[in-house]
Write a structure and sequence with these properties.
The complex is a heterodimer of chains A (421) and B (285). With 421 residues, chain A is of the alpha/beta class. Chain A contains eight helices and 19 strands. Classes of the chains: A alpha/beta (421), B mainly alpha (285). The interface between A and B is large, with 49 and 40 residues.
Chain lengths: 421, 285
């Protein structure tokens, strides 16, 4: 008897793009006509890989195509991949929200899936009523919920509010209660989507801890999807890497995460280009150069920013500066080049400028830059170019406590002095 | 690992056999069914002052309206029954059927947010709707009794009490069966093409007029369009309900048998279509 808990065999899922209307009715009739004559579905032969950035010729895409893997019982397995790689589709099929187009999945034991916290919570019902309702939706029997009721309330820390309708809860309390119910599910397989993106840091840690407990302590199989490499690294031993609906690789987490980081690239074009202007100076090209492939910066490595400046006339007072913003438009770094400090771009034509930052310890996250261009002499502002050159910062080593989101803006070198009495 | 045959608890495959209805799964989730019933009932009247009293007001106003329009203005006979009792009885059973039908018919569209996130046998939801409507039916049945008492004391009709009342649960079950069957068929059809949601609203209204609610079946005797009413399986249940409850109505064995067979067919067809659709409806809803 082998210990395989989940066996996925050549799993595929096809989606139809576009509206549902008379066009899809025609396809449905055609499909039905083929089925009653005993033929194969004609639309299964077509379809393209799910690359969202290019427009395709087919109305059908394969969100998953021929994915197969096995998961041992008691393993904590991470599923990683870019947006649109098929992670969510895989989870949906595993949690039986939708059926695959072809292929099969075989599972030992019960599956509990947590694609969202608080599914079925009714705002008008009290915390107590919602615990029972949500628990039952997730597949628990009433006596099981009763058994864990106190533990759930305690874990969520909402004892005082347990008889208040959940619509009066703060969003944090709501999420805590919802996760707490799921944490006490008695199932052999637990599927968790990125539900930890909500809640405060302390609670996130608690959830991660609970999940770790679940997979290590109780011998349960955990499937975990996240964009957060640090939680993947700290929670899982094995990883499945999907890209465009196909399995790229599976194996030990650290290897797969490395592979993922080196392959990962942004959908957005990272090199900004513009036509030179006749009358005013402008930036014709801007790019970010990172050590990691495709503008992924690894925290602590060198990074540099390149600008090509077109000058239609001669001047002696150019100013160029750029800020690094995160996705929430918070500025972290401001760098500048003033002619008064360092002569540059005095003649006509194209000037190449490069700003390199050694051992740049920006904290993990997604960033982009905004470039400002001005002429000091005439006090003329030539405007800015916002949100260009997106790049992502990843932490390479696995931190003992994991790397929580938004823990800080940057890391710095430091020295500790330790004295013991 | 060639010869080892393994035991799998769950197999997820694209298609299942036609009659693989996982009714055992539904049974396992019976607690959820009750909680949904409770949720429906509790949530509906939170933050209302009158609460369940609304269950009295709805059928009462409708019955009074029927009384004015069909009895006072149109002078349609209600046989020997007091008109208000007659309309109330028709109303009570009809409301049960129509709420079962309309509420179950949007099962998929109304619960897409839950269905999209977690698996449970989808049949649990329409079943819970039918059950929670039984509670509401019970309340309006009390109102009917109250009206019968009123009619005895004030209008001078004799209070009808009979051992036939024991058949009422069966009649309600048949109503529930047809409502559920039709409801889940429509809910399955609406997942991809929404045309039926538009249809259901006025179809229920029209259906009421070919069911003997505002007139007795005997009123149609010999009229040529009576065949439409006779073809309606609901006719016999409504007539039987009125016969059992207030002693007015036409009950025939053939009619009951016809209704019963139609109910079984609808339930079977409904469950088969429903379980077929529930697997992939999230892709199209």
């Amino acid at each position: 008897m082998s210990n395989i808990a989940i066996k996925v065999e050549s799993l595929s899922k096809q989606y139809r793009l576009g509206d549902i209307g008379t066009g899809s009715l025609a396809h449905d009739i055609n499909r039905w006509w083929h089925t009653i004559r005993g033929n194969e579905d004609p639309y299964l032969k077509i379809g393209e890989a799910n690359d969202r950035t290019r427009s395709g010729s087919s109305q059908y895409v394969w969100s998953l195509r021929d994915v197969g893997f096995e998961i041992q019982q008691g393993d904590a397995v991470g599923i990683i991949g870019r947006n649109g790689a098929g992670k969510s589709t895989l989870l949906k099929i595993l949690s039986r929200v939708t059926a695959p187009t072809t292929g099969s999945i075989k599972v030992k034991g019960r599956i509990a899936s947590l694609l969202e916290v608080g599914t079925g919570f009714h705002p008008d019902l009290t915390g107590r009523e919602n615990i029972f309702l949500n628990g039952a939706i997730l597949g628990m029997r009433k006596h099981e919920i009763k058994k864990h009721f106190d533990a759930i309330v305690d874990f969520a820390g909402v004892e005082r509010y347990v008889d208040t309708p959940v619509k009066r809860y703060s969003s944090g309390m709501y999420v805590r209660l919802a996760f707490a119910v799921a944490a006490y599910l008695e199932s052999e397989v637990l599927i968790v989507d990125e539900v930890l993106a909500v809640g405060d840091g302390e609670f996130q840690k608690k959830c991660l801890g609970k999940m770790g407990e679940v997979s290590k302590g109780e011998g349960r199989t955990v499937l975990f999807v996240s964009h957060n490499m640090s939680s993947i690294l700290s929670l899982t031993q094995k990883c499945i890497y999907l890209a465009n609906g196909q399995l790229v690789s599976d194996g030990a987490t650290s290897d797969i995460v490395d592979l993922y980081l080196s392959n990962n690239n942004f959908v957005k074009d990272v090199i900004y280009t513009a036509e030179p202007k006749e009358t005013i100076p402008n930036i014709v090209k801007a790019s970010v150069v990172t050590k990691g492939k495709n503008s992924t910066h690894i925290c602590g490595e060198d990074i540099s920013f390149k600008f090509s400046l077109h000058m239609p006339y001669e001047t002696t007072g150019m100013c160029l500066s750029f800020q690094i913003f995160d996705l929430k438009e918070r500025a972290y770094v401001y760098n500048w080049l003033f002619d008064s400090e360092h002569n540059f771009a005095r003649g006509k034509g194209i000037h190449e400028l490069e700003c390199s930052i050694p051992n740049f310890k920006l904290y993990k996250g997604r960033y982009s830059i905004t470039v400002h261009l001005a002429e000091q002499k005439g006090k003329t502002y030539f405007g800015n170019i916002e949100n260009i050159c997106p790049f992502e910062v990843e932490m390479k080593e696995n931190h003992e406590w994991g790397w929580p989101e938004e823990a800080c803006a940057m890391l710095t070198d430091c020295k500790w002095l330790i004295k013991s009495e | 690992m060639s010869a080892i045959t393994e035991e799998w608890d769950i197999e997820i495959k694209p298609k299942s056999k036609l009659f693989d209805l996982h009714l055992r799964d539904v049974w396992h989730y019976r607690d959820l069914m009750w909680l949904f019933v409770r949720r429906d009932f509790v949530a509906q009247y939170k933050q209302t002052i009158l609460g369940p009293v609304w269950h009295f007001i709805q059928p009462m106003l409708t019955s009074i309206m029927f009384l004015v329009v069909f009895s006072k203005i149109a002078h349609i006979s209600t046989d020997q029954a007091d008109p208000i009792v007659f309309y109330m009885a028709g109303n009570v059973i009809w409301t049960y059927f129509s709420t079962c039908l309309t509420n179950t018919s949007n099962t998929f569209t109304a619960n897409a947010s839950i269905f999209g996130k977690v698996y449970f046998p989808r049949l649990v939801l329409p079943l819970s709707i039918v059950i929670s409507n039984i509670v509401k039916f019970g309340i309006s049945l009390l109102l009917l009794l109250a009206t019968m008492v009123y009619s005895t004391l004030v209008n001078g009709y004799s209070f009808y009490f009979s051992w036939h009342w024991v058949f009422i649960p069966f009649l309600v079950a048949m109503m529930a069966g047809i409502g559920l069957g039709a409801g889940i068929i429509i809910s399955a059809l609406t997942t991809k093409y929404r045309d039926f949601t538009v249809l259901i609203g006025f179809a229920v209204q029209l259906l009421m007029y070919i069911t003997p609610i505002v007139y007795p079946l005997s009123y149609l005797g010999g009229k040529k369009y009576g065949i439409i009413v006779e073809a309606n399986p609901l006719t016999y249940i409504v007539e039987a309900f009125k016969y059992c409850m207030i002693g007015q109505g036409t009950v025939t064995l053939n009619g009951m048998l016809y209704s019963f067979i139609i109910m079984l067919v609808m339930l079977l067809v409904g469950t088969v279509i429903f379980t077929k659709v529930e697997k992939t409806f999230m892709d199209t809803v």
